[in-house]
Amino acid sequence: MLPKTLEWKDDRLHILDQTELPYRVEFIQCRNYQDVAEAIRKMKVRGAPAIGVAAAFGLYLGIANSQEKSYDEFLMEFTRAERELSQTRPTARNLFWALERMRNVVEKTRSRSIKMLKELLLKEAKAILKEDQDLCQKIGENGAALIEDGDKILTHCNAGSLATAGIGTALGVIYTAKGEGKKVRVYADETRPALQGARLTVWELTQGGVDVTLICDSVAGLLMRKKMIDLVLVGADRIAANGDFANKIGTYNLAVLAKAHGIPFYVAAPYSTIDHSLKSGEDIQIEEREKDEVTHLSGQRIAPNGVKVYNPVFDVTPHQYVDRIITDQGLFKPSAKGKNFLDRGE
Amino acid sequence: MLPKTLEWKDDRLHILDQTELPYRVEFIQCRNYQDVAEAIRKMKVRGAPAIGVAAAFGLYLGIANSQEKSYDEFLMEFTRAERELSQTRPTARNLFWALERMRNVVEKTRSRSIKMLKELLLKEAKAILKEDQDLCQKIGENGAALIEDGDKILTHCNAGSLATAGIGTALGVIYTAKGEGKKVRVYADETRPALQGARLTVWELTQGGVDVTLICDSVAGLLMRKKMIDLVLVGADRIAANGDFANKIGTYNLAVLAKAHGIPFYVAAPYSTIDHSLKSGEDIQIEEREKDEVTHLSGQRIAPNGVKVYNPVFDVTPHQYVDRIITDQGLFKPSAKGKNFLDRGE
Q: Tell me, what's the ipTM?
C-alpha cells in the first residue's frame, strides 16, 4: 500500500518526512508557511508536483491566521509567504505554477472579504491537491499504453507517489501497467548524491508490490548493452516548449545511453510541468546544492576534507533524446524540428 | 608527495591500507600469504597493477618459511598459496600474470636447491615491483604527449599511484604532464559503490598537487555537454587482443558519453594488462560483489532492508570507443576492423 505523501487534516499540512525514509515512516505537521518552506528546502517533501501542492497549502497557511482587515495589508502578508516559498527550490516548475494559481485567486477576487478570500485560497490549494491525484491517474493510464507485459524498465530518482499527492508520474505509469495485469521489472538507479532511488523509489515500489532491483548510477550502460533494459522512464521537473526538460542529475546520461543502445526513452509529467515561456532547455536555471551532499553521507565524511566539489542537482536533456512525453493530456512526441513539441505524436 | 602503496621491508610486505583512506594513512604488514590474500580480497590493496605486485610478494611469503626439503613438497606449498591468491579477485589480468611469472621461476629452475628457489622467487617479486614503477614512468611519458596545457580531464575510479607500485597509470600520465609544466584540471568521478574516486583519487591528486574537483558519477554527461571536459582518461583491469577492455563499473557509460560528445577517450595501462588469449571483451569474466557495498556505507544502511541489488564491479568497453591505449610500450589505436589493436596508431 502506498503511503500518503501529503494530506490536509485538522487545519495542518501533514507531510511524510522523506529524509527519514526508508528507516522511519514519520509525518510532520506544518502549522505555518515557515514550516512548509523549511520542509521543501530540506527536501522533507520533494518531487516537483508534491512541492507544488505543499507550496499551495504553505501559502494558505501564510494567511490563514491573518488578522488584517484591509485587502492591501492582507496582500502584504500573502506576498511575504509567497516570496519565502518561491525561494525554497529554483528549478521545479510546479512550485511557481502553484504559487501563481494561488495569487490569481487573490487578484481576481479583491472585492471579496478577507474571510471569503481565505476560504477561496484553501479551496484552491485543495483543488491543486485533488487535481494532482487525478493527473497522476491520467498520466498512469496514458503511459501504461507504452508498457508491454514483461518489460524491464530503468528509472532514475523518484518520480513516484512520494513525489506527488497521487500515485506518481513515472512510477504511476508502472503501477497502472501492473494494475492492468502486465508483469514488469524495474531497475532503480540509486541516484547520487541524495539517493532518492535507493531510499525512496526502492521503498515505494516495494510497498506497491513491484519487482525492483537497486543499481548504482554507473551500471546503466552495462545493463543496456546486455539487453536487460527495454525502456527508460523518468519524471521531469521542468519542460521547455520544445520538449527539452530538466530532471535529476544523471537523467541526461541515461538519455544518451538509451539512444546509443536504441532503447525508448520516456518522460512522464503533469502537463503543468511545461513552461511555455521557455523556448528551450538552455534557459532552464539549474540549482547547485551544497558540497556536503557529496562529501558526507548520514553525517559521515566519505571524501577528504576541503575537496572541491561540483554538485548540480539537475541536468537538461534535449528533446532529440525523448521518444514520448507522457502527460495527463496525452502522449506527445517532441518534433524533430524542435520548434514546439506539442504536436501530438503518431 | 605521493605515499608508498607497496613496499618490501624487513621481510614483510607493507601495504597502505586503502580502506582507511582518506581518514587515516595506515600501513599493514603482511607476514604470510594469507595476510596478502586477505588484503587483496578486502581491497586494502586494489588496482590491477598493485594487486599483481602484492600477489607476487604474497606467493613468496607462501614459501619463505617452508621447511620442505623436496622440490615436489615445496611445489605443493607454492601451489597452495598460489591457489588462494588466484581466488582473491577474478578480473584483474595482472594478478594472474604475476602469479604466472612466479610459477615460471619455480618450473624453470626445478634443479636448484630450495634455498636458491626462495631467493629467485623473492628476486622475481622485487623485479615485478621495480618493473611496475618503471612501467608507470613510461606510461606517464607516453601518455603525456596526448595532454595539452589547460586540458580538463575526467577520470573514473583510481588508476593512480594507489593502484600501482609507482606513480600510477592514468594518473601517472597526469603527474607527468604536470611535471612537464602543463596546467591540467581533473574532474574525478566518485565511483560508486566503493567510492575509490572520492576516497582515493581525490586524496592522491591533492597529495600530488593536482587541481581536482569531485563529482558524482551522474554528472559526466552535463559536464561534457557544457564543454567542461577535453578528454577522458581511465585505467584498465584487463584488455582483450582486439582492444576491448574491462575497467571499473561506469567506465562504459563514460565511453558512450565521450563518443556522443566527440571527446577523446584514452585508456592507460601496462602492456601486461593485455590478455592475448582473449579475442574480445565478450570473454572477460565480470566480478559481482556483495549487495552490502551498495546498500551500506561505512556500516550505515542507505536502502531498505531486503532489497534486491545488482552489483557488478566492472564493465567492458568495446574497442570502438577507445581512441588510444597508452602503454609502457607506446600508444596503440584499436583497429577499426577489431582484429588486433596492436597495430600502432598514427
A: 0.89
